[in-house]
Amino acid sequence: MTAAGGALLRQDRAQLWHPYSSMTDPAPTRLVTGAAGSRITLDGIGPVVDGMSSWWSAVHGYRHPVLDEAVRRQVDRMSHVMFGGLTHEPAVELAGRLVELTGLDHVFLADSGSVAVEVAMKMALQHQRGSGRPGRNRFLTVRGGYHGDTFDCMSVCDPVGGMHSMWSGLLPPQVFGDRPPELDADVPAWAQRFRALAAEHADRLAGLVVEPLLQGAGGMRPYSPACLRVFREVADEHGLVLIFDEIATGFGRTGHFFAADAAGVRPDVVCVGKALTGGYLSLAAAVCTTEVARGVSASDSGALMHGPTFMGNPLACAVACASLDLLSTSDWSAQVRRIGAGLQALHRIPAAEVRVLGAVGVVRLDHQVDVARATEAALAHGVWLRPFRDLIYTMPPYVCDDADIAAVCTAIAAAAEAG
């Protein structure tokens, strides 16, 4: 490690709070000095494959010339302007792209995934008020989910096994069904229970919010696409706003451009983020139907009551449009299939369970991971991983080549043995 790097890390340890960490007893951090392609450069270590895509967002890797140029061009015009009473070309262009891709009608641009889910939940609540059903102020969801760290989002995360159980007494009480099953054969019995739960609580439910096809930070767990059709049918039967949280799953990660495509289901609201800008800037969106928008407009406020300062940031919108261009021209589907084929090597690892879906590979151990030991073991093989709970997993950039994916699999095996 360089002297300058050591000084920065000491200041970081004294002053900076990192995600899900203690300030008084912080976990070790590593200094990133650069990034390019599929690799980040760590001070004292050098370039390593980023098996996490910077928390699933940098699907095109780092310093991509197309994305870099999109940012430069937009900086020369303007970096930011308020969205209240004003608009600009990058936002209008991005909205058109999202409407075309989702098959929905109206776009609210937010500044993070959690905020997009908050907005979607507000849409559902205001839609019910505008439809003459103000008593519908709770949400139906399933156990094992994760939707973000802001307050309403936390209320629809798993109430027991999730990261937010300490807030359970302060959060709005929601209605939780069983985890959706992985196998089609198990869907009918689960669906019967889920339908009964929805019917029992229907008169107070505003919406149904789920992560389609893959539950992310709640456990990295895929489930049967048939469950998505059950969600749509339940929402239609009881007049619920169906919200799909595609922040982690969108833009090809599961092997479908949107995870909902696996079942041919269209939600009433879809939330996107993370890979939307290729990992360059924070941007998210909640995209909804005209029916939902009309309900919101008919509510007592007459308007959707949300407005982030950096909503519709021009830099973020410009690079998001460039990222969508890259996805449309780079054959993302072939990239994801190739990565998924390489990740099949994970099945050779002795573990409690191995899961591969699209460009997602997960090894679940039969014990809690020793994060420090597992991380060191992965770095010894030239790969950055960030395990949590009993999971060692990867969501690598789509630009990874076969050698990168082989290295990731070797690193996960070493991390599983060490952790």
From TrEMBL:
Binding site for pyridoxal 5'-phosphate: G113, S114, D245, P308, T309
Catalyzed reactions per annotation: (8S)-8-amino-7-oxononanoate + S-adenosyl-L-methionine = S-adenosyl-4-methylsulfanyl-2-oxobutanoate + (7R,8S)-7,8-diammoniononanoate
Subcellular location: Cytoplasm
Signal peptide residue numbers: none
First-tier enzyme category under EC: transferase
Positions contributing to substrate binding: W55, Y146, K274, G307, R386
Site residues (Participates in the substrate recognition with KAPA and in a stacking interaction with the adenine ring of SAM), renumbered to this chain: Y20
Primary location group: cytoplasm
Known EC number: 2.6.1.62
Recorded metabolic or biological pathway in which this protein acts: Cofactor biosynthesis; biotin biosynthesis; 7,8-diaminononanoate from 8-amino-7-oxononanoate (SAM route): step 1/1
Keywords, comma-separated and alphabetical: Aminotransferase, Biotin biosynthesis, Cytoplasm, Pyridoxal phosphate, S-adenosyl-L-methionine, Transferase
Positions where N6-(pyridoxal phosphate)lysine occurs in the chain: K274
Cofactor: pyridoxal 5'-phosphate
Subunit-structure text: Homodimer.
HAMAP family attached to this UniProt entry: BioA (MF_00834)
Family, as annotated: Belongs to the class-III pyridoxal-phosphate-dependent aminotransferase family. BioA subfamily.
NCBIfam families referenced in this protein's UniProt entry, alphabetically: bioA, PRK05964.1
Protein name from the UniProt record: Adenosylmethionine-8-amino-7-oxononanoate aminotransferase
Species of provenance: Saccharopolyspora gregorii
